[in-house]
Amino acid sequence: MVIGTKFFKKRVRCLVARISPFQGDDMGSNPIGRIGRHRPAGASKSRHCRLVRARSLLLSAIGWLCKKLILIEANMVSKNSRSKIALERVYRLFELAEQEFVLHPERSRRYVELARKISMRNKAPIPAELKKLFCKKCGAFLVKGKNAEEKAVGELVEIHCKECGFAFKKSAAQ
Ligand SMILES: [Zn+2]
After folding, report:
1. Is the pTM of this model over 0.70?
2. What is the pLDDT of residues 62-117, one digit of tens each?
3. How far is the centre of ligand 1, averaged over its atoms, from the C-alpha of 165 (Å)?
4. Is 169 strand, coil or helix?
5. How many angstroms separate the CA atoms of 116 and 122, rounded?
6. How much is the pLDDT for 17?
7. What end-to-end distance do the CA atoms of the chain give, in Å?
8. Which residue, among 100, 173, 84, has the nearest Cα to 131 in the 3D structure?
9. Interval between CA 167 and ligand 1 midpoint (Å)
10. What is the radius of gyration, based on Cα positions, of the chain?
11. The dihedral formed by the CA atoms of 52, 54, 58 and 60, expressed in degrees to the nearest 10
12. Is the dihedral of CA 22, 25, 30, 35 positive or negative?
C-alpha cells in the first residue's frame, strides 16, 4: 500500500508538470479532453505528443486508483464472510467430535485439531462455550465424566483433563 501511494504521487507530479505549460493557451483550459489520437493541422508535433502522453498517464492513474479501491472493498467483504464461514466450520467440527467420541475418540481429537487450525488461520476465535470442550495442552476432546472432571472453584469451573493431567479454569456462566 505504501509503495502504491508513492507510485501514485509520482505519477500525479509527472502529470502536473506535463499539463501546466499548456493551460490557458490556444488549446483551451482543459487540453486533456481535447486531444485526439491524430494531431490537428497546425499543432506542434512535440506539444501534441506530450499532451497525448499526459492524457494516457492520467487515464492509467485513474485506472490504477479504481483497481486499488475495488481490491480494498473486496478484501473488506471477504474478511467478514471468511471469519463467519470459519466459525460455522468450527461449530460443525465440534458437533462431529461429540458424535464420534464414543466409538472413535481419535477422530474427535482430529476434529478438534482441525477446528483450532481453521480458527487460527481465519482469525475467528473459538467461542468460550467451545473452549471448555477441549484440552488446549494435548488437544483431546473432553467429555465430563469420561476423560474430564469438573470442579467448581468460586465463580469458576476447574476442568481437569485425564488424558494429560492438565487443569484449566473457565467461567461457569457459559
Ligand atoms: Zn490434556
Report:
1. no
2. 989 888 888 777 777 677 788 899 999 999 999 999 999 999 999 999 999 999 99
3. 6
4. strand
5. 10
6. 58
7. 41
8. 173
9. 8
10. 32
11. 70
12. negative
Residues 6+ apart with CB under 8 A from 149: 159, 160, 162
Residue pLDDT, tens place only, 131-151? 999 999 999 999 999 999 999
Find where cell 481453521 sits. 118
Neighbours of ion ligand 1 (CB under 5 A): 135, 137-138, 161, 163-164, 166
CA of 160 to the centre of ligand 1 (A): 8
Half-sphere exposure of 154 (CA within 13 A, CB side): 4
3-state secondary structure at position 33: helix
Amino acid letter at 169? Answer: K
Shortest CA distance to 150 belongs to which of 161, 142, 159, 141? 159
* C-alpha cell read off for 82: 471468511
